[in-house]
């Protein structure tokens, strides 16, 4: 049926159909970068827990300002997303943030208990939840600032893209 329609249809209909298919492809959010950035941010969330927890645990720093490191990394990831995928930046950042939070707060603690104690469950540490919510708020704010303050400028020489961080005046 589509072959017959292609033979009978005028050429401008075929061009419009191809343009629509191309625009649908452009509207899709890139999957592989979303997955990679989710794993990167989940790792940052886990490392942040090591920055925050008390020194009597192995591999801990007891750093009270642990959320600063997370905010800086999330800011950088927000700038990267805004620069590389400007059309999908808010949806992609939201997806990355939710998937990273699920991996870091649900999957990783369950695997930690499974590997260390041989059972499926969670450690009930209120300090972990408090540190996580503190740093998640700072991380989400850093991600939003990175998405909002980075814009794609006009291509420079040889098709390169330059990124500018906006100042207070927006210039």
Describe the structure.
The structure is a single chain. By secondary structure, the protein is mainly alpha-helical. The chain contains six helices and two strands. The chain has helices spanning 2-8, 11-27, 31-52, 67-84, 89-117, 126-149; strands at residues 150-152, 163-165. A two-stranded antiparallel sheet has the order 1-2. The longest helix is centred in the middle third of the chain and has 29 residues, at 89-117. The protein is globular, with a radius of gyration of 22 Å. Mean pLDDT is 75; it is low at 1-21 and 156-161.
Write the layout of secondary structure elements.
Elements: H1 2-8, H2 11-27, H3 31-52, H4 67-84, H5 89-117, H6 126-149, E1 150-152, E2 163-165
Antiparallel strand pairs: 1-2
Helix pairs in contact: 3-4, 3-5, 3-6, 4-6, 5-6
Mean pLDDT: 75
The count of strands amounts to 2
Query: How many alpha or pi helices?
Result: 6
What does the radius of gyration come to? 22 Å
Q: Which sequence of strands runs across the widest sheet?
A: 1-2
Helix and strand pattern: HHHHHHEE
Distance between the termini: 55 Å
Structural class: mainly alpha
């Amino acid at each position: 049926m589509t072959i017959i329609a292609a033979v009978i249809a005028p050429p401008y209909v075929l061009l419009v159909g191809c343009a629509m298919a191309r625009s649908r492809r452009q509207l899709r959010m890139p999957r592989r970068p979303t997955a990679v950035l989710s794993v990167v941010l989940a790792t940052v969330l886990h490392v942040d827990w090591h920055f925050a927890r008390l020194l009597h645990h192995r591999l801990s720093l007891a750093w009270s300002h642990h959320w600063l490191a997370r905010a800086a990394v999330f800011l950088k990831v927000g700038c990267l997303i805004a620069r590389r995928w400007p059309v999908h930046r808010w949806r992609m950042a939201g997806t990355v943030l939710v998937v990273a939070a699920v991996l870091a707060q649900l999957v990783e603690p369950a695997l930690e208990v499974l590997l260390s104690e041989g059972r499926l469950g969670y450690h009930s540490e209120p300090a972990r939840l408090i540190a996580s919510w503190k740093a998640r708020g700072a991380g989400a704010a850093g991600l939003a600032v990175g998405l909002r303050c980075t814009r794609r400028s006009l291509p420079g020489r040889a098709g390169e893209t330059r990124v500018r961080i906006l100042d207070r005046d927006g210039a």
